[in-house]
Design brief:
Layout lengths: L8 E2 L3 E2 H22 E2 L3 E2 L3 E13 L1 H10 L2 E5 L2 E14 L4 E7 L4 E7 L4 E11 L6 E2 L2 E2 L5 E5 L4 E17 L2 E2 L2
């Protein structure tokens, strides 16, 4: 008995063209499944990338700065959910004289010129976390990119009008721990 008969059917049951079409469909589905499960440059969909970035917030009252210092480290939150990121450090530079700064006004949805009073502090927050999507660099509801406005929000404090001033990324991490 021959494998392909005179009508082009394999074992007398399957048409060879139909079999090739089925194999192509299975191959395409396998490729799509592989792309969804494994990301380039090499990580499972559940992995992310460790990120350390700084956010500068101008004109913070001394009492607020003192309170924040007592809260560190403090886990970030967005949309009433804790994020895989924490404020690990904050440094303060006293404002010596009245000045002005561009800050993000969430109510207006735009940057506004605001006065920064002498006697306040310019704070620089160091934040460490994991972004799940390496392409969009989102942490919660905010994108992590140098120059973007940023709200520093935890369960105990929230400061608007911050600007991301630096951002460093490291190798892919799994479950919040760096792979070596």
């Amino acid at each position: 008995m021959s494998m392909i008969d005179k009508k082009g059917k394999i074992f007398g049951k399957f048409n060879i063209i139909d079999l090739i079409a089925i194999l192509l469909i299975v191959a395409v589905l396998a490729l799509i499944g592989y792309k969804l499960l494994v990301r380039s440059p090499g990580g499972l969909a559940g992995e992310g990338q460790a990120v350390v970035y700084t956010v500068e917030v101008k004109g913070v009252e001394p009492e607020v700065y003192e309170f924040i210092q007592k809260q560190l480290p403090s886990q970030l939150m967005a949309a009433n959910e804790l994020l895989d990121a924490s404020v690990t450090d904050v440094t303060a530079t006293p404002v010596e004289h009245d000045t002005y700064a561009m800050t993000w006004n969430a109510n207006l949805g735009a940057e506004t010129l605001t006065q920064v009073d002498a006697g306040t502090y310019d704070l620089v927050f160091t934040i460490e976390g994991t972004v799940k999507d390496n392409l969009s660099s989102e942490l919660g509801t905010q994108e992590i990119r140098v120059g973007k406005s940023h709200i520093v929000k935890t369960a105990t404090f929230e400061l608007e009008g911050g600007i991301i001033t630096s951002c460093e990324r490291s190798e892919a991490v799994a479950d919040g721990a760096a792979q070596e």
